[in-house]
From TrEMBL, chain A:
InterPro entries in UniProt: AA_ABC_transptr_permease_3TM, ArtM/GltK/GlnP/TcyL/YhdX-like, MetI-like, MetI-like_sf
Membrane topology listed for this record: Multi-pass membrane protein
Organism: Brachybacterium paraconglomeratum
Residue ranges crossing the lipid bilayer per the database entry: 21-43, 63-94, 115-133, 139-162, 183-208, 237-259
Gene Ontology terms: cellular component: ATP-binding cassette (ABC) transporter complex
GO biological process terms, semicolon-separated: amino acid transport
UniProt-recorded name of the protein: Amino acid ABC transporter permease
Annotated localization: Cell membrane
Keyword NADP: no
From TrEMBL, chain B:
Keyword terms: Amino-acid transport, Cell membrane, Membrane, Transmembrane, Transmembrane helix, Transport
Protein name: Amino acid ABC transporter permease
Membrane-protein topology: Multi-pass membrane protein
Transmembrane segments: 15-39, 51-75, 81-100, 121-138, 144-164, 176-195
Ranges where the ABC transmembrane type-1 domain occurs: 15-195
GO terms, molecular function: transmembrane transporter activity
The keyword 4Fe-4S is annotated on this UniProt entry: no
Classification via Gene3D superfamilies: MetI-like
GO biological process: amino acid transport
Cellular compartments annotated: Cell membrane
Phylogenetic classification of the source organism: Bacteria, Bacillati, Actinomycetota, Actinomycetes, Micrococcales
Listed PROSITE patterns: ABC_TM1
Length: 272, 232
């Protein structure tokens, strides 16, 4: 991917250039190592490198405790995705609909939930609705806001996908006498859904990040489980670092899958 | 309405803090992200690796985890920052990763021939980037960078979870005190919608201003960008 424009930004270096690159490489390695060493020194001088504070993350009970949180995170994310993605598709269709009222309503819904922070929606369920006598279990106080926000973002993803399907496909569908609805259902949508598959995986990453708001509603997902662990063990940096690394690894893998899928689809499209 | 009248200074302070968090976080992110993008396309391998590792870490960590780590974790290793600056730091680190990715893919949209032409008239790595590639790349970057801005606006709300007294924190505190839920949500929601829609409008204006010949753009078919809207 980066072998296009970024490769020609500099000449193949001559002997002098190579020496300079080597020098700068060595300097930057030194700088990076100095930075890392500084961080480690800061950890050490505050007693945070004490092996006793880290070794606990190899113990089965600690891992099981965090594992419970991870299970909660995955459950919440999966459920939110299963509801939000079809809802997003419906919203996208509504926004593209010829009925003015329907498309305006969908547009308002989408722009609203895209423009406000999910935390505000969470607070609506956590603080505002109980004042009117409407209460939800903690699980739903996290999942419903996730669904609302994600439905808006995935609606835009689906709309982009539908618009990205070649115009000729619309025309061909019309030429063989399909109605607008039939053309959408059996010609456009199947292609659009395939086109947006990588984007949907990235939407999953966003959902996984949003699920950390369980920390605010006190639902047992990974971030909140980390908080509980901190209040028991007092190993603050260690716990939150471990939790963050778990998130980073999962999201990294999902992003990789999405980009690989995208590259494969682009390559196939280019091959005709 | 009393809830508002009696607390106008507090509300204005909250709105001001949200704006300050967003603007500072975004401006720093633009700088850091551009530097990272230049490092990622530079001929120095260690810099390329470091920037890649940076991007992979900070675009995959949930913003809330990052903010918690910064605000509660740093004091444990002997670094004390006011919570406001923890918020700015978290927003900067996270948004910079997305800025970097967008700048890099913007650089990739500039035709290879332009970079070759620039080099053939004797421009070096920085000259090519500064005078030929980046100015053109900027055009295709406007929309993605607007998305990063909206992400920063929305992300700034999470700073209320680390006790930064921005508009979400203020309105929820007042909400608990006065039980004026609808009013408070209207205020907070309006602030975020104005900021993000305002940012989008400004971005649209910039995009129109920098695009050569408005007609060309509308004809160009929009390629599907998978990473659009990927920021939380």
């Amino acid at each position: 991917m980066s072998s296009t424009a970024t490769q020609v930004l500099f000449d193949a270096p001559g002997p002098k250039g190579r020496r300079r690159i080597l020098l700068l490489s060595v300097l930057s390695v030194v700088a990076i190592l100095a930075l890392l060493a500084g961080a480690l020194w800061q950890f050490r001088s505050n007693g945070q490198l004490d092996p006793g504070k880290w070794i606990v993350y190899l113990r089965v009970d600690y891992l099981a405790f965090l594992g419970q949180g991870l299970w909660g995170t995955l459950k919440v994310t999966a459920l939110a995705a299963v509801v939000a993605f079809p809802l997003g598709l419906l919203l996208a269709l509504a926004r593209l609909s010829r009925f003015r009222v329907l498309s305006t309503l969908a547009a308002v819904w989408i722009e609203f939930y895209r423009g406000i922070p999910m935390l505000l929606v969470v607070y609506a369920f956590l603080l505002a609705l109980p004042a009117f006598g409407v209460t939800f279990p903690r699980f739903w106080m996290l999942v419903i806001p996730m669904i609302l926000v994600s439905s808006a973002t995935t609606a835009e993803v689906f709309r982009a996908g539908i618009n990205a399907v070649d115009r000729g496909q619309h025309e061909a569908a019309a030429a063989i006498g399909l109605s607008r609805r039939d053309a959408m259902a059996s010609v456009i949508l199947p292609q659009a859904v395939r086109l947006v598959l990588p984007s949907l995986i990235l939407a999953l990453v966003t959902l996984l990040k949003d699920s950390t708001l369980g920390y605010v509603v006190s639902y047992n997902e990974l971030q909140f489980q980390g908080k509980t662990l901190v209040s028991i063990t007092r190993y603050l940096v260690q716990t939150y670092l471990v939790v963050s690394v778990i998130y980073i690894v999962i999201n990294f893998l999902l992003t990789r899958i999405a980009l690989a899928l995208d590259a494969r689809m682009k390559a196939r499209a280019a091959a005709g | 309405m009393d809830a508002i009248r009696e607390n106008i200074p507090l509300l204005l302070q909250g709105i001001g803090t949200t704006v300050a968090l967003t603007v500072l976080g975004y401006v720093f992110a633009l700088v850091v992200g551009t530097v990272m993008a230049v490092a990622r396309v530079s001929p120095i391998p260690p810099l390329r690796w470091a920037a890649t590792v940076y991007v992979e870490i900070f675009r995959n960590i949930p913003l809330l985890s990052l903010l918690i780590l910064i605000s509660f974790g740093l004091p444990d290793v002997g670094l004390r920052l006011p919570y406001f600056w923890c918020g700015v730091l978290g927003l900067t680190l996270s948004s910079a990763a997305f800025v970097c990715e967008n700048v890099r893919s913007g650089i990739n949209t500039v035709p290879v021939g332009h970079a070759e032409a620039a080099r053939s008239i004797g421009l070096g790595f920085f000259g090519t980037l500064r005078f030929v590639v980046l100015p053109q790349a900027f055009r295709s970057m406007v929309q993605p960078l607007v998305n990063v801005f909206i992400g920063t606006v929305i992300g700034s709300a999470l700073c209320s979870a680390i006790a930064v007294q921005e508009v979400t924190w203020v309105t929820q505190t007042l909400n608990i005190r006065y039980a004026q839920a609808v009013l408070m949500f209207l205020i907070a929601g309006a602030v975020y919608l104005v900021l993000s829609l305002g940012g989008a409008a400004l971005g649209g204006a910039i995009e129109r201003a920098v695009s050569p010949g408005g007609r060309d753009r509308s004809r160009a078919s929009k390629a599907l960008d998978v990473t659009a809207g990927a920021q939380a």
